[in-house]
Amino acid sequence: MKRAFFTPMLAAVLLATAPMAASAAEEKVVYHINDSANARVAMNNVNNHLSASPDAKIVVVTHGKGIDFLLNEAKDDKGDFAPVVAGLKAKGVDFRVCNNTLKARKLDASAVIQEANIVPSGVAEIGKLQSQEGYVYLKP
After folding, report:
1. CA distance linking residue 125 with residue 131, whole number of Å
2. Domain-by-domain residue ranges, the chain?
3. Which class in CATH covers the domain with range 26-138?
4. What pLDDT, in 10s, does the model give residues 32-67?
5. Smallest Cα–Cα separation from 89: which of 120, 66, 117?
């Protein structure tokens, strides 16, 4: 008799706490930028994302023309990118630049702003983040 009562009770407790366990999972997102023409919009997306989910772990991975906004003195018609990137970095956003792109464009690591890290391959980094570290993919 005790077993018959205990099993349904345990099931009810587990079902009731399942949503709490799911909501406690860390939100991890990789933003993919391969064209700096989209960089300003992407930075706005990241900022809005953090406003809605302040604890989200966000990585911005760039390659090809997407690295341009992470180069020293990068700017567009709205101004310099450095303060925007620095502000997001201060909120925990991680910026990653493809070394293959740097090599192909004959750029030295010193061309990249200090807020960004260089990774061997941008596309491989995205694959690793998705397949091995559980990041979801967003392409602004």
Report:
1. 10
2. 26-138
3. alpha beta
4. 999 999 999 999 999 999 999 999 999 999 999 999
5. 117
